[in-house]
Automatic annotation (TrEMBL):
It is an enzyme of class 2 (transferase). Residues 4-145 form the N-acetyltransferase domain. The keyword Acyltransferase applies. InterPro entries: Acyl_CoA_acyltransferase, Bact_Acetyltransf, GNAT_dom. This is GNAT family N-acetyltransferase. GO terms for molecular function: acyltransferase activity. Its EC number is 2.3.1.-. PROSITE patterns: GNAT. Keywords: Acyltransferase, Transferase.
């Protein structure tokens, strides 16, 4: 059995990525080709994928945000964390998040923020095992009406 590989995703990986996102938000409509191109062209936004046995198994993205506080150090935001439902509990999600954190620290980020809409304490415990502190800050969200 080969070791999982983690790498930046490319436009060629989009079909596998969209299929994996079905395990995050079932029923979401897939983005159009123009939206995909626009997202992948964003500077400071990276999509990471963990491939196990040649298949995209886990992913997250990292946005590095320029900043004028903290001495001008940027900060990171991790979003869209998902592992294929059949592969959960094998460490793939933790591995892809650890990779994203390594990249954030290499980019000079002074902190990384991750939010989740999941209310499941097991999900919160997962993020805490990844090193996040759920009691450090409070997030407020507003959605477009």
């Amino acid at each position: 059995m080969t070791e999982p590989e983690i790498r930046d995703l490319a436009p060629d990986d989009i079909d596998a990525l969209i299929a994996l996102y079905e395990h995050l938000n079932p029923g979401d409509p897939p983005p159009g080709a123009e939206a995909v191109q626009a997202v992948f062209a964003q500077p400071g936004l990276r999509h990471f994928g963990l491939f196990a046995q040649g298949r995209l198994t886990a992913t997250c993205n990292l946005a590095v945000i320029p900043n004028l506080t903290r001495g001008g150090q940027p900060y990171g935001v991790i979003e869209n964390v998902v592992t294929h439902a059949a592969r959960r509990g094998q460490g793939h999600g933790q591995d892809v998040i650890a990779h994203a954190l390594t990249q954030a620290w290499a980019a000079g980020c002074y902190k990384v923020v991750l939010t989740t809409s999941r209310r499941d304490p097991a999900v919160w415990a997962f993020y805490e095992r990844c090193g996040f502190d759920g009691g450090h800050k409070r997030a407020f969200v507003i959605r477009r009406p």
